[in-house]
Amino acid sequence: MALMRVSSPHAHGSYSTGMVMRQVLLATLPGVFMLTLFFGFGTLINVAWACLVGIAFESLALFLRGRSLTFYLKDCSALVTCVLLGIALPPYAPWWLIAVGVAAAILMAKQLYGGLGYNPFNPAMVGYVVLLISFPVQMTAWAPPRGLADVPNLWEALQACFLPAQFDGVTMATPLDILRQNQGLLMEDLWAQTPQFGRWAGIGWEWVNLAFLAGGLWLLYRRIFTWHAPVAMLASLTLMSALFYAGGSSSSGGSPLFHLLSGATMFGAFFIVTDPVSSAVSVRGRLVFGALIGVLVYLIRVWGNYPDAVAFAVLIANFAAPFIDHYTQPRVYGHGKSGGTG
Amino acid sequence: MLADYSILLIGAILVNNFVLVQFLGLCPFMGVSNKLETAMGMSMATTFVLTLASACSHLTYYLLLEPLGLEYLRTISFILVIAVVVQFTEMVVRKSSPLLHRVLGVYLPLITTNCAVLGVALLNINKDHSFLQALFYGFGAALGFSLVLILFAAMRERLAVADVPEPFRGAAIGMVTAGLMSLAFMGFAGLV
Protein backbone atom coordinates (compact mmCIF):
# COMPACT_ATOMS: atom_id res chain seq x y z
CA MET A 1 0.00 0.00 0.00
CA ALA A 2 1.39 3.37 -0.98
CA LEU A 3 1.57 6.04 1.64
CA MET A 4 -0.79 8.90 0.98
CA ARG A 5 0.85 12.26 0.76
CA VAL A 6 -1.37 14.81 2.44
CA SER A 7 -0.81 18.50 1.91
CA SER A 8 -1.12 21.10 4.64
CA PRO A 9 -2.97 22.13 6.77
CA HIS A 10 -2.42 19.11 8.99
CA ALA A 11 -5.21 20.01 11.38
CA HIS A 12 -7.65 17.32 12.35
CA GLY A 13 -11.31 18.01 11.63
CA SER A 14 -13.37 17.47 14.71
CA TYR A 15 -16.39 16.16 12.80
CA SER A 16 -16.53 12.97 10.80
CA THR A 17 -19.19 12.49 8.10
CA GLY A 18 -21.08 10.11 10.35
CA MET A 19 -21.18 12.60 13.21
CA VAL A 20 -22.45 15.38 10.96
CA MET A 21 -25.15 13.14 9.53
CA ARG A 22 -26.27 11.98 12.98
CA GLN A 23 -26.58 15.59 14.13
CA VAL A 24 -28.73 16.37 11.08
CA LEU A 25 -30.91 13.39 12.00
CA LEU A 26 -31.23 14.70 15.56
CA ALA A 27 -32.15 18.16 14.29
CA THR A 28 -35.11 16.80 12.29
CA LEU A 29 -36.71 15.54 15.52
CA PRO A 30 -38.68 18.71 16.45
CA GLY A 31 -40.10 18.91 12.94
CA VAL A 32 -41.03 15.24 12.87
CA PHE A 33 -42.62 15.62 16.30
CA MET A 34 -44.77 18.53 15.09
CA LEU A 35 -45.76 16.66 11.93
CA THR A 36 -46.77 13.68 14.05
CA LEU A 37 -48.64 15.91 16.48
CA PHE A 38 -50.70 17.57 13.76
CA PHE A 39 -51.02 14.89 11.10
CA GLY A 40 -50.79 11.65 13.07
CA PHE A 41 -48.39 8.74 12.80
CA GLY A 42 -48.13 8.90 9.01
CA THR A 43 -44.83 10.76 8.93
CA LEU A 44 -43.24 8.43 11.49
CA ILE A 45 -44.26 5.39 9.44
CA ASN A 46 -42.98 7.09 6.26
CA VAL A 47 -39.62 7.75 7.86
CA ALA A 48 -39.25 4.29 9.38
CA TRP A 49 -40.25 2.46 6.21
CA ALA A 50 -38.10 4.71 4.03
CA CYS A 51 -35.07 4.04 6.23
CA LEU A 52 -35.66 0.29 6.08
CA VAL A 53 -35.98 0.25 2.28
CA GLY A 54 -33.17 2.78 1.90
CA ILE A 55 -30.64 0.73 3.85
CA ALA A 56 -31.61 -2.32 1.78
CA PHE A 57 -31.05 -0.44 -1.50
CA GLU A 58 -27.82 1.15 -0.26
CA SER A 59 -26.50 -2.27 0.81
CA LEU A 60 -27.48 -3.75 -2.55
CA ALA A 61 -25.65 -1.00 -4.45
CA LEU A 62 -22.57 -1.28 -2.24
CA PHE A 63 -22.59 -5.07 -2.62
CA LEU A 64 -22.85 -4.79 -6.42
CA ARG A 65 -19.92 -2.38 -6.48
CA GLY A 66 -17.87 -4.52 -4.10
CA ARG A 67 -17.55 -1.80 -1.48
CA SER A 68 -17.27 -2.19 2.25
CA LEU A 69 -20.79 -2.35 3.67
CA THR A 70 -20.02 -1.33 7.23
CA PHE A 71 -17.78 1.60 6.27
CA TYR A 72 -20.28 3.24 3.94
CA LEU A 73 -23.39 2.43 5.97
CA LYS A 74 -21.80 3.88 9.10
CA ASP A 75 -21.64 7.39 7.60
CA CYS A 76 -25.48 7.48 7.89
CA SER A 77 -25.84 9.46 4.65
CA ALA A 78 -28.41 6.99 3.31
CA LEU A 79 -30.38 7.35 6.54
CA VAL A 80 -30.40 11.15 6.22
CA THR A 81 -31.65 10.92 2.62
CA CYS A 82 -34.42 8.50 3.64
CA VAL A 83 -35.48 10.52 6.68
CA LEU A 84 -35.67 13.72 4.61
CA LEU A 85 -37.66 11.95 1.90
CA GLY A 86 -39.95 10.37 4.50
CA ILE A 87 -40.65 13.81 5.98
CA ALA A 88 -41.33 15.31 2.55
CA LEU A 89 -43.83 12.63 1.49
CA PRO A 90 -47.48 13.04 2.46
CA PRO A 91 -48.45 11.07 5.58
CA TYR A 92 -50.24 7.73 5.00
CA ALA A 93 -48.57 7.30 1.61
CA PRO A 94 -48.80 3.68 0.41
CA TRP A 95 -45.68 1.54 1.02
CA TRP A 96 -44.88 1.06 -2.66
CA LEU A 97 -44.85 4.82 -3.26
CA ILE A 98 -42.21 5.29 -0.60
CA ALA A 99 -40.20 2.35 -1.92
CA VAL A 100 -40.18 3.77 -5.47
CA GLY A 101 -39.13 7.17 -4.16
CA VAL A 102 -36.33 5.72 -2.07
CA ALA A 103 -35.14 3.64 -5.04
CA ALA A 104 -34.98 6.77 -7.20
CA ALA A 105 -33.18 8.67 -4.45
CA ILE A 106 -30.62 6.06 -3.38
CA LEU A 107 -30.04 4.09 -6.57
CA MET A 108 -30.49 6.69 -9.29
CA ALA A 109 -29.57 10.01 -7.71
CA LYS A 110 -26.82 8.80 -5.41
CA GLN A 111 -25.24 5.43 -6.24
CA LEU A 112 -25.29 5.84 -10.04
CA TYR A 113 -23.05 8.86 -9.58
CA GLY A 114 -20.66 7.00 -7.30
CA GLY A 115 -22.22 7.48 -3.87
CA LEU A 116 -21.93 10.20 -1.28
CA GLY A 117 -19.88 13.19 -2.39
CA TYR A 118 -20.48 12.81 -6.12
CA ASN A 119 -24.22 13.24 -6.51
CA PRO A 120 -24.95 16.47 -8.39
CA PHE A 121 -28.61 16.48 -7.33
CA ASN A 122 -30.04 16.25 -3.83
CA PRO A 123 -31.12 12.57 -3.63
CA ALA A 124 -34.17 13.14 -1.41
CA MET A 125 -35.50 15.84 -3.75
CA VAL A 126 -34.91 13.64 -6.82
CA GLY A 127 -36.97 10.93 -5.13
CA TYR A 128 -39.68 13.44 -4.33
CA VAL A 129 -39.84 14.93 -7.83
CA VAL A 130 -39.84 11.50 -9.52
CA LEU A 131 -42.84 10.56 -7.36
CA LEU A 132 -44.61 13.89 -7.85
CA ILE A 133 -44.39 13.58 -11.64
CA SER A 134 -45.21 9.86 -11.75
CA PHE A 135 -47.94 9.62 -9.08
CA PRO A 136 -49.49 13.09 -8.74
CA VAL A 137 -52.70 11.80 -7.13
CA GLN A 138 -51.00 10.02 -4.23
CA MET A 139 -48.42 12.76 -3.83
CA THR A 140 -50.89 15.62 -3.43
CA ALA A 141 -53.12 13.82 -0.92
CA TRP A 142 -52.23 15.50 2.36
CA ALA A 143 -54.10 14.46 5.48
CA PRO A 144 -56.03 17.23 7.26
CA PRO A 145 -54.41 18.58 10.41
CA ARG A 146 -55.66 17.66 13.88
CA GLY A 147 -58.65 19.75 14.81
CA LEU A 148 -60.20 19.66 11.32
CA ALA A 149 -60.64 15.91 11.20
CA ASP A 150 -59.96 12.81 13.27
CA VAL A 151 -56.33 11.80 13.15
CA PRO A 152 -56.01 8.05 12.64
CA ASN A 153 -54.46 6.05 15.46
CA LEU A 154 -51.30 3.99 15.02
CA TRP A 155 -53.10 0.83 13.89
CA GLU A 156 -55.17 2.69 11.27
CA ALA A 157 -52.08 4.52 10.11
CA LEU A 158 -50.21 1.25 9.59
CA GLN A 159 -53.17 -0.13 7.66
CA ALA A 160 -53.24 2.97 5.47
CA CYS A 161 -49.62 2.48 4.61
CA PHE A 162 -49.46 -1.26 4.05
CA LEU A 163 -53.06 -2.34 3.29
CA PRO A 164 -54.41 0.55 1.20
CA ALA A 165 -57.61 -1.26 0.28
CA GLN A 166 -58.88 -1.27 3.87
CA PHE A 167 -58.47 2.39 4.64
CA ASP A 168 -60.19 5.24 2.94
CA GLY A 169 -58.25 8.17 4.26
CA VAL A 170 -59.56 11.71 4.34
CA THR A 171 -57.46 14.23 2.49
CA MET A 172 -57.68 17.98 2.30
CA ALA A 173 -56.08 20.68 0.20
CA THR A 174 -53.08 22.32 1.86
CA PRO A 175 -53.09 26.09 2.41
CA LEU A 176 -50.69 26.52 -0.51
CA ASP A 177 -53.09 24.59 -2.79
CA ILE A 178 -55.98 26.78 -1.69
CA LEU A 179 -54.11 30.01 -2.29
CA ARG A 180 -52.95 28.79 -5.70
CA GLN A 181 -56.49 27.91 -6.75
CA ASN A 182 -58.09 31.03 -5.33
CA GLN A 183 -60.45 32.47 -7.93
CA GLY A 184 -61.26 36.07 -7.21
CA LEU A 185 -61.81 35.85 -3.45
CA LEU A 186 -60.36 38.61 -1.31
CA MET A 187 -57.71 37.36 1.11
CA GLU A 188 -59.89 38.20 4.10
CA ASP A 189 -62.82 36.21 2.73
CA LEU A 190 -60.59 33.32 1.69
CA TRP A 191 -59.08 33.29 5.17
CA ALA A 192 -62.51 33.31 6.83
CA GLN A 193 -63.97 30.74 4.46
CA THR A 194 -61.26 28.12 4.66
CA PRO A 195 -60.75 26.25 7.91
CA GLN A 196 -57.21 25.17 6.95
CA PHE A 197 -55.75 28.63 7.51
CA GLY A 198 -54.31 29.37 10.92
CA ARG A 199 -52.96 32.57 12.39
CA TRP A 200 -50.14 33.24 9.89
CA ALA A 201 -50.22 30.32 7.49
CA GLY A 202 -51.95 26.93 7.70
CA ILE A 203 -53.07 25.19 10.88
CA GLY A 204 -50.23 22.87 11.86
CA TRP A 205 -47.97 24.08 9.07
CA GLU A 206 -46.83 27.17 10.94
CA TRP A 207 -45.74 25.04 13.89
CA VAL A 208 -44.09 22.44 11.66
CA ASN A 209 -42.09 25.19 9.98
CA LEU A 210 -41.13 26.79 13.29
CA ALA A 211 -39.96 23.40 14.55
CA PHE A 212 -37.78 22.88 11.48
CA LEU A 213 -36.47 26.42 11.97
CA ALA A 214 -35.51 25.50 15.53
CA GLY A 215 -33.74 22.34 14.35
CA GLY A 216 -31.95 24.32 11.66
CA LEU A 217 -30.81 26.99 14.09
CA TRP A 218 -29.41 24.28 16.34
CA LEU A 219 -27.42 22.88 13.39
CA LEU A 220 -26.21 26.37 12.62
CA TYR A 221 -25.11 26.75 16.24
CA ARG A 222 -23.27 23.43 15.99
CA ARG A 223 -21.57 24.75 12.83
CA ILE A 224 -22.77 21.88 10.67
CA PHE A 225 -23.32 24.37 7.86
CA THR A 226 -22.84 28.12 7.38
CA TRP A 227 -25.67 30.63 7.33
CA HIS A 228 -25.19 31.77 3.72
CA ALA A 229 -27.44 29.49 1.69
CA PRO A 230 -30.47 29.27 4.05
CA VAL A 231 -30.44 32.97 4.84
CA ALA A 232 -30.12 33.87 1.17
CA MET A 233 -33.04 31.58 0.32
CA LEU A 234 -35.31 32.91 3.06
CA ALA A 235 -34.35 36.50 2.28
CA SER A 236 -35.05 36.20 -1.43
CA LEU A 237 -38.35 34.40 -0.75
CA THR A 238 -39.34 37.18 1.66
CA LEU A 239 -38.33 39.82 -0.86
CA MET A 240 -40.25 38.17 -3.69
CA SER A 241 -43.40 37.70 -1.61
CA ALA A 242 -43.18 41.29 -0.34
CA LEU A 243 -42.79 42.63 -3.89
CA PHE A 244 -45.81 40.70 -5.20
CA TYR A 245 -47.85 40.79 -2.01
CA ALA A 246 -50.62 43.04 -3.35
CA GLY A 247 -52.18 43.26 0.12
CA GLY A 248 -55.46 41.50 0.66
CA SER A 249 -56.58 41.55 -2.97
CA SER A 250 -57.76 38.43 -4.72
CA SER A 251 -54.62 38.27 -6.84
CA SER A 252 -52.38 38.35 -3.79
CA GLY A 253 -49.57 35.83 -3.75
CA GLY A 254 -49.74 35.57 0.02
CA SER A 255 -47.89 37.53 2.67
CA PRO A 256 -44.14 37.02 3.28
CA LEU A 257 -44.95 35.40 6.62
CA PHE A 258 -47.37 33.03 4.91
CA HIS A 259 -44.65 31.90 2.50
CA LEU A 260 -42.02 31.58 5.20
CA LEU A 261 -44.27 29.38 7.35
CA SER A 262 -45.97 27.33 4.63
CA GLY A 263 -45.20 24.01 3.08
CA ALA A 264 -41.57 23.01 3.05
CA THR A 265 -39.95 26.44 3.35
CA MET A 266 -38.04 25.98 6.60
CA PHE A 267 -37.46 22.28 6.00
CA GLY A 268 -36.01 23.14 2.60
CA ALA A 269 -33.98 26.09 3.83
CA PHE A 270 -32.18 24.24 6.62
CA PHE A 271 -32.19 20.59 5.60
CA ILE A 272 -32.21 20.53 1.79
CA VAL A 273 -30.50 23.72 0.61
CA THR A 274 -27.63 23.12 3.02
CA ASP A 275 -26.72 19.76 1.47
CA PRO A 276 -22.92 20.14 1.18
CA VAL A 277 -22.60 17.91 -1.88
CA SER A 278 -25.16 19.20 -4.35
CA SER A 279 -25.08 22.90 -3.47
CA ALA A 280 -22.57 25.51 -4.57
CA VAL A 281 -19.33 25.46 -2.62
CA SER A 282 -17.83 28.95 -2.46
CA VAL A 283 -19.23 31.53 -0.04
CA ARG A 284 -20.52 33.86 -2.75
CA GLY A 285 -21.71 30.81 -4.66
CA ARG A 286 -23.83 29.68 -1.71
CA LEU A 287 -25.42 33.12 -1.48
CA VAL A 288 -26.32 33.03 -5.18
CA PHE A 289 -27.49 29.42 -4.89
CA GLY A 290 -29.77 30.16 -1.94
CA ALA A 291 -31.17 33.31 -3.49
CA LEU A 292 -31.90 31.45 -6.75
CA ILE A 293 -33.87 28.82 -4.83
CA GLY A 294 -35.90 31.45 -2.99
CA VAL A 295 -36.87 33.18 -6.22
CA LEU A 296 -37.73 29.90 -7.95
CA VAL A 297 -39.82 28.71 -5.00
CA TYR A 298 -41.92 31.84 -5.20
CA LEU A 299 -42.23 31.74 -9.00
CA ILE A 300 -43.38 28.13 -9.09
CA ARG A 301 -45.59 28.40 -5.99
CA VAL A 302 -47.51 31.41 -7.24
CA TRP A 303 -47.51 31.01 -11.03
CA GLY A 304 -46.58 27.39 -11.65
CA ASN A 305 -48.65 24.21 -11.63
CA TYR A 306 -47.11 22.83 -8.46
CA PRO A 307 -48.22 24.44 -5.19
CA ASP A 308 -45.09 23.56 -3.28
CA ALA A 309 -42.00 24.21 -5.25
CA VAL A 310 -39.07 23.57 -2.96
CA ALA A 311 -38.14 20.26 -4.60
CA PHE A 312 -38.19 21.66 -8.14
CA ALA A 313 -36.40 24.84 -7.12
CA VAL A 314 -33.67 22.84 -5.39
CA LEU A 315 -33.15 20.55 -8.39
CA ILE A 316 -32.95 23.48 -10.81
CA ALA A 317 -30.47 25.23 -8.53
CA ASN A 318 -28.47 21.99 -8.15
CA PHE A 319 -28.31 21.92 -11.91
CA ALA A 320 -26.90 25.46 -11.91
CA ALA A 321 -24.54 24.90 -8.96
CA PRO A 322 -21.39 23.83 -10.89
CA PHE A 323 -21.82 26.85 -13.15
CA ILE A 324 -22.29 29.17 -10.16
CA ASP A 325 -19.14 27.72 -8.62
CA HIS A 326 -17.23 28.27 -11.83
CA TYR A 327 -17.91 32.01 -11.67
CA THR A 328 -17.65 32.56 -7.93
CA GLN A 329 -14.27 31.01 -7.30
CA PRO A 330 -12.69 32.75 -4.34
CA ARG A 331 -9.53 34.69 -5.02
CA VAL A 332 -6.44 32.72 -4.06
CA TYR A 333 -4.51 34.46 -1.30
CA GLY A 334 -1.59 36.37 -2.73
CA HIS A 335 -3.05 36.59 -6.22
CA GLY A 336 -4.64 39.60 -7.86
CA LYS A 337 -8.20 39.75 -9.13
CA SER A 338 -7.21 38.73 -12.64
CA GLY A 339 -5.61 35.55 -11.34
CA GLY A 340 -2.02 36.71 -11.80
CA THR A 341 0.26 37.43 -8.90
CA GLY A 342 -0.31 40.94 -7.74
CA MET B 1 -47.50 44.06 -26.48
CA LEU B 2 -44.28 43.99 -24.50
CA ALA B 3 -45.83 41.48 -22.12
CA ASP B 4 -46.77 39.22 -25.04
CA TYR B 5 -43.20 39.12 -26.26
CA SER B 6 -41.71 38.54 -22.83
CA ILE B 7 -44.16 35.67 -22.29
CA LEU B 8 -43.12 34.24 -25.65
CA LEU B 9 -39.47 34.59 -24.63
CA ILE B 10 -39.87 33.06 -21.16
CA GLY B 11 -41.99 30.28 -22.63
CA ALA B 12 -39.29 29.39 -25.14
CA ILE B 13 -36.45 29.66 -22.62
CA LEU B 14 -37.88 27.87 -19.58
CA VAL B 15 -41.36 26.42 -19.86
CA ASN B 16 -41.01 24.84 -23.29
CA ASN B 17 -37.25 24.60 -23.25
CA PHE B 18 -36.22 23.11 -26.57
CA VAL B 19 -33.75 20.65 -25.14
CA LEU B 20 -35.22 19.56 -21.80
CA VAL B 21 -38.95 19.78 -22.51
CA GLN B 22 -39.30 19.37 -26.28
CA PHE B 23 -36.22 17.14 -26.68
CA LEU B 24 -34.87 18.94 -29.74
CA GLY B 25 -31.20 19.64 -30.38
CA LEU B 26 -30.07 16.70 -28.27
CA CYS B 27 -27.06 15.88 -30.47
CA PRO B 28 -25.07 19.06 -29.75
CA PHE B 29 -26.44 18.96 -26.20
CA MET B 30 -24.75 15.60 -25.59
CA GLY B 31 -21.89 16.08 -28.03
CA VAL B 32 -20.49 19.54 -27.27
CA SER B 33 -21.06 19.62 -23.52
CA ASN B 34 -17.84 18.02 -22.35
CA LYS B 35 -16.08 21.32 -21.75
CA LEU B 36 -17.45 24.65 -20.63
CA GLU B 37 -15.49 26.76 -23.13
CA THR B 38 -16.59 24.79 -26.16
CA ALA B 39 -20.17 24.82 -24.87
CA MET B 40 -20.03 28.60 -24.70
CA GLY B 41 -18.70 28.88 -28.24
CA MET B 42 -21.42 26.56 -29.46
CA SER B 43 -24.06 28.56 -27.59
CA MET B 44 -23.01 31.84 -29.16
CA ALA B 45 -22.92 30.38 -32.64
CA THR B 46 -26.29 28.68 -32.20
CA THR B 47 -27.92 31.81 -30.79
CA PHE B 48 -26.82 33.82 -33.79
CA VAL B 49 -27.80 31.24 -36.40
CA LEU B 50 -31.06 30.21 -34.77
CA THR B 51 -32.38 33.74 -34.54
CA LEU B 52 -31.40 34.51 -38.10
CA ALA B 53 -32.65 31.18 -39.50
CA SER B 54 -35.97 31.57 -37.69
CA ALA B 55 -36.53 34.94 -39.35
CA CYS B 56 -35.27 33.84 -42.78
CA SER B 57 -37.38 30.69 -42.91
CA HIS B 58 -40.39 32.75 -41.87
CA LEU B 59 -39.78 35.12 -44.78
CA THR B 60 -39.19 32.20 -47.16
CA TYR B 61 -42.49 30.61 -46.20
CA TYR B 62 -44.69 33.70 -46.42
CA LEU B 63 -42.97 35.46 -49.34
CA LEU B 64 -42.08 32.49 -51.50
CA LEU B 65 -43.77 29.21 -50.63
CA GLU B 66 -47.26 30.43 -49.78
CA PRO B 67 -47.79 32.68 -52.83
CA LEU B 68 -46.65 29.82 -55.07
CA GLY B 69 -48.79 27.26 -53.26
CA LEU B 70 -45.75 25.18 -52.39
CA GLU B 71 -46.35 24.82 -48.64
CA TYR B 72 -45.64 21.09 -48.80
CA LEU B 73 -42.03 21.88 -49.67
CA ARG B 74 -41.43 23.71 -46.42
CA THR B 75 -39.28 21.09 -44.66
CA ILE B 76 -36.84 20.73 -47.51
CA SER B 77 -36.70 24.46 -48.23
CA PHE B 78 -36.14 25.26 -44.55
CA ILE B 79 -33.21 22.86 -44.48
CA LEU B 80 -31.81 24.70 -47.49
CA VAL B 81 -32.40 28.09 -45.85
CA ILE B 82 -30.68 26.96 -42.66
CA ALA B 83 -27.70 25.61 -44.57
CA VAL B 84 -27.42 28.87 -46.48
CA VAL B 85 -27.67 30.95 -43.30
CA VAL B 86 -24.99 28.85 -41.63
CA GLN B 87 -22.70 29.09 -44.65
CA PHE B 88 -23.32 32.80 -45.00
CA THR B 89 -22.63 33.38 -41.31
CA GLU B 90 -19.41 31.44 -41.56
CA MET B 91 -18.21 33.46 -44.54
CA VAL B 92 -19.09 36.80 -42.97
CA VAL B 93 -17.52 35.92 -39.65
CA ARG B 94 -14.37 34.62 -41.32
CA LYS B 95 -13.86 37.82 -43.30
CA SER B 96 -15.00 40.33 -40.70
CA SER B 97 -13.74 38.93 -37.42
CA PRO B 98 -10.99 36.31 -37.54
CA LEU B 99 -10.97 36.12 -33.75
CA LEU B 100 -14.65 35.26 -33.52
CA HIS B 101 -14.18 32.81 -36.36
CA ARG B 102 -11.49 31.03 -34.41
CA VAL B 103 -13.82 30.76 -31.41
CA LEU B 104 -16.91 29.68 -33.34
CA GLY B 105 -15.26 28.16 -36.41
CA VAL B 106 -15.66 24.48 -35.63
CA TYR B 107 -19.20 24.78 -34.35
CA LEU B 108 -20.75 26.74 -37.16
CA PRO B 109 -21.09 23.86 -39.66
CA LEU B 110 -22.37 21.61 -36.85
CA ILE B 111 -25.40 23.83 -36.40
CA THR B 112 -26.75 22.79 -39.79
CA THR B 113 -27.58 19.43 -38.24
CA ASN B 114 -29.10 20.89 -35.06
CA CYS B 115 -32.71 19.78 -35.17
CA ALA B 116 -33.73 22.61 -32.83
CA VAL B 117 -33.07 25.05 -35.68
CA LEU B 118 -35.38 23.20 -38.05
CA GLY B 119 -37.80 22.67 -35.17
CA VAL B 120 -38.10 26.39 -34.50
CA ALA B 121 -38.63 27.13 -38.19
CA LEU B 122 -41.43 24.58 -38.47
CA LEU B 123 -43.03 25.53 -35.13
CA ASN B 124 -43.16 29.17 -36.23
CA ILE B 125 -45.38 28.12 -39.14
CA ASN B 126 -47.50 25.78 -37.00
CA LYS B 127 -48.14 28.48 -34.42
CA ASP B 128 -48.87 31.20 -37.02
CA HIS B 129 -46.22 33.51 -35.62
CA SER B 130 -45.80 36.95 -37.11
CA PHE B 131 -42.34 37.97 -38.32
CA LEU B 132 -41.45 39.68 -35.04
CA GLN B 133 -42.84 36.79 -33.04
CA ALA B 134 -40.76 34.38 -35.11
CA LEU B 135 -37.68 36.45 -34.40
CA PHE B 136 -38.36 36.45 -30.65
CA TYR B 137 -39.29 32.77 -30.62
CA GLY B 138 -36.04 31.87 -32.37
CA PHE B 139 -34.04 34.05 -30.00
CA GLY B 140 -35.80 32.58 -26.94
CA ALA B 141 -35.25 29.03 -28.17
CA ALA B 142 -31.58 29.81 -28.68
CA LEU B 143 -31.26 31.35 -25.20
CA GLY B 144 -32.93 28.31 -23.67
CA PHE B 145 -30.64 26.00 -25.60
CA SER B 146 -27.58 28.01 -24.53
CA LEU B 147 -28.62 28.16 -20.88
CA VAL B 148 -29.12 24.43 -20.63
CA LEU B 149 -26.02 23.58 -22.66
CA ILE B 150 -23.75 25.78 -20.54
CA LEU B 151 -25.16 24.58 -17.22
CA PHE B 152 -24.90 20.99 -18.41
CA ALA B 153 -21.30 21.49 -19.54
CA ALA B 154 -20.33 22.88 -16.12
CA MET B 155 -21.99 19.86 -14.51
CA ARG B 156 -20.29 17.38 -16.85
CA GLU B 157 -16.89 18.77 -15.96
CA ARG B 158 -17.71 17.76 -12.41
CA LEU B 159 -19.12 14.38 -13.45
CA ALA B 160 -15.89 13.60 -15.31
CA VAL B 161 -14.10 13.23 -11.99
CA ALA B 162 -16.92 11.41 -10.16
CA ASP B 163 -16.53 7.78 -9.14
CA VAL B 164 -19.30 6.61 -11.48
CA PRO B 165 -19.78 2.82 -11.75
CA GLU B 166 -18.03 1.39 -14.84
CA PRO B 167 -21.13 0.65 -16.98
CA PHE B 168 -22.48 4.17 -16.51
CA ARG B 169 -19.36 6.19 -17.33
CA GLY B 170 -19.37 8.79 -20.07
CA ALA B 171 -22.47 9.24 -22.17
CA ALA B 172 -24.66 6.98 -19.99
CA ILE B 173 -24.40 9.10 -16.87
CA GLY B 174 -24.77 12.16 -19.09
CA MET B 175 -28.11 10.81 -20.28
CA VAL B 176 -29.22 10.07 -16.70
CA THR B 177 -28.25 13.60 -15.69
CA ALA B 178 -30.09 15.08 -18.67
CA GLY B 179 -33.15 13.07 -17.63
CA LEU B 180 -33.00 14.39 -14.07
CA MET B 181 -32.58 17.93 -15.41
CA SER B 182 -35.59 17.41 -17.59
CA LEU B 183 -37.55 16.37 -14.48
CA ALA B 184 -36.45 19.56 -12.75
CA PHE B 185 -37.55 21.68 -15.71
CA MET B 186 -41.04 20.16 -15.53
CA GLY B 187 -41.42 22.33 -12.45
CA PHE B 188 -41.73 25.35 -14.74
CA ALA B 189 -44.93 23.93 -16.26
CA GLY B 190 -47.79 26.38 -16.15
CA LEU B 191 -45.58 29.39 -15.54
CA VAL B 192 -46.84 31.29 -18.60
From TrEMBL, chain B:
Pfam family membership, one: Rnf-Nqr
One GO BP annotation of this record: electron transport chain
Per the UniProt entry, the signal peptide is none
Where is the protein localized?
Answer: Cell inner membrane; Endomembrane system
Main subcellular location of this protein, as a coarse class: membrane
> Where is it found, in Gene Ontology cellular component terms?
endomembrane system; plasma membrane
- Tell me the InterPro entries matching this sequence: Ion_transpt_RnfA/RsxA, NqrDE/RnfAE, NqrDE/RnfAE_oxidrdctase
Sorted alphabetically, the keyword list is: Cell inner membrane, Cell membrane, Electron transport, Membrane, Translocase, Transmembrane, Transmembrane helix, Transport
> What's the subunit arrangement here?
The complex is composed of six subunits: RnfA, RnfB, RnfC, RnfD, RnfE and RnfG.
> What EC designation does it have?
7.-.-.-
Q: Membrane-spanning regions, if any?
A: 6-32, 44-64, 76-93, 105-125, 131-155, 167-191
Identify the NCBIfam families for this entry.
PRK05151.1, rnfA
Question: What HAMAP family does this protein map onto?
Answer: RsxA_RnfA
Q: What is this protein called?
A: Ion-translocating oxidoreductase complex subunit A
